[in-house]
């Protein structure tokens, strides 16, 4: 078994979470002694006491807003800086020979601008917590680097129509109802927050960066001139609902890291005709493809374990579907109004068919309720006017009310003796 040398010991120590971890590590043996002194940056937050352990510190890492900044107040707004200048003159000039100040014990906060000459100088300061873009502008002439920058409405005035390269996240509703026709999102951006481009009715094209990981709720909702979307390969989460609802896209490829298609994600994308899902997808949430008029076929990978209510409601041209083997429930109104749906293949162990799941499937001519189903919900086949043959499994115990209402061609319904109850106006 190989031993940990001093270099690799330093590599490991980068992941420590407290000064106590470092002190304990240095006490293990002599070769780890002085590990902290080797660092030119601080892998943990520092205080006025613990900074002394990092003798070679050149670059200050600030991990949280509450971390000690040693007098380097990078968060000051213009208004705050004006106030600081006032305090600076009050404290600096009348007390030039002041060497010591005694504070009351109850006074824990001493603003850095009280004694500006007491700040610690660093070669560079790297800020890891979230900041607004305005903070970047405030510090443009300083040696401060910001790793997580959010561009919000308040900071938009500094951008002059473009998204700055420093931005890593685009804030909520930033371009909502904007008249932009195209947008190129910088390669630094990793997240689009909620409703960023909602109702940008003139938007026709979007260029996504490769690093984009998360797209928020209603981000492109009602961008009804947006006809093409190429999602980046490393996208791993489409958050919330209505992300692309009411767009005019014709096809979509879901990246391989996405595990869930959220509620109403492509709701009423009237021209969407081709959807590619990878075998990483596990859940199709409620109404995710509802109202996609041109969707005539979709391959559902066997990785899907849940298809929720109304997922394909009113997909008027959907002709056939094969349910993944892990699906055990056909949810409420899942295929309601799929007027051209004529074939449903169920390879799994379906045990419940919920209310109205096939209502108004006008092209459905015959159907076999598979073995294992114990309950057929209310109005399950209501309005299936072409349904002329139905086979009901002997495992069925309950048939809901109005289950076959409006099935005029269905002359015989062979109820097995196992059926214990059926609702009013079943036929």
From TrEMBL:
Listed InterPro entries: LRR_5, LRR_dom_sf, Surface_bspA-like
Domain of life: Eukaryota
Gene3D superfamilies reported for this sequence: 3.40.50.12480, Ribonuclease Inhibitor
Signal peptide feature range: none
Pfam families linked: LRR_5 (PF13306)
Protein's UniProt name: Leucine rich repeat containing protein BspA family protein
